[in-house]
User: Fold this.
Amino acid sequence: MTRTSDLIDVLVADATPVRRLRPPAARAACWLLFATAVMLFVGIAHGVRADLALKLHQPVFVIGMVAAMATGILAALGAFIASVPGWSRRWLLLPIPASLVWVVTIGYGCLINWVTIGPEGMSLGETSKCFATLVLVGMPLSLMMLIMLRHTARLSPGPVIMTGSLAVAAITAVALSVFHPLDATAMILLWNLGVAALYLSLSGRYGQRVLSWVAQR
Assistant:
């Protein structure tokens, strides 16, 4: 039977240097800077919606935008903090107030503008452009979040990766509101809430498996 002291000596002899992770707030800031860069790139290539200046004078639109952005920021911060071993998982609750405001503004706008869907409403061409923007913004943000959270693979990462996915969905919703005329209609629920639900369901089901695969590389 190996003595404890001998086992310690063997482990120390085979140990390799480990680079310490940056503080959670710094990693969240790096991800948010990357998200800003992606949105700027898409904005330069696509351009903002023609009526953005007018929409910024509408309280519901502004509150929804701010709430979605706050949800993305707080969800990213909560995910990176909760991914540190020994830190409380209650940090994952950080984006809940902002996300509730975001959902309420979407639902309110949908109710008061439901009749805007019609022959002159959202066209198939605009819908396809929205989907392209969703992919161009959401995919790189998801990949970067996955890489930055890969160290949680063996630490029950489900709730952490789900919160990270909420951050991606919220930032993607901001991009859609800035770049496309998705006024408060049923399309808002389809893109914003639908995308958020898709990210959350996929991350909850496959998050640990995918993170484990990334962590090995």
Notes: The longest helix spans residues 186-215. Residues 114-119, 184-189 have pLDDT under 50 and may be disordered. The chain has eight helices and no strands. The helical segments are 4-14, 24-46, 52-55, 59-82, 96-112, 124-148, 158-179, 186-215.
